[in-house]
Specification:
Length: 100
């Protein structure tokens, strides 16, 4: 997940980072597609896209992404970073492990 206030703590504890650096449009589409669907990570069912969350997604590339890449730079020698730019890259990566 993306919780910047615990990001560095989690980075210190891991050995590999899977970073989903997807385009804004994909993130908005994903958030919209979850509306009306029961989720185990939420105790309620969303009935509309929260405007504050929508704005967070829109602002993410300029407000959060640079901080994440700063941490990547800081820990690039200590951690394995696997960055996916789209869902197809992530799926191709996971296919390597099917049947193992």
């Amino acid at each position: 997940g993306n919780y910047m206030w615990t990001m560095e703590m989690r980075l210190k504890a891991c050995d590999t980072v899977f970073f989903l650096d997807y385009p804004i449009e994909v993130c908005l589409e994903g958030a919209t597609s979850r509306i009306g669907k029961k989720r185990e990570d939420l105790p309620w069912e969303e009935t509309e896209l929260d405007e504050e969350f929508r704005q967070y997604i829109l602002d993410f590339p300029k407000e959060q992404l640079p901080k994440m890449y700063e941490l990547l730079e800081k820990y690039k020698q200590e951690k394995e970073w696997i960055i996916f730019q789209n869902q197809e890259e992530a799926e191709r990566f996971l296919e390597k492990f099917e049947g193992k």
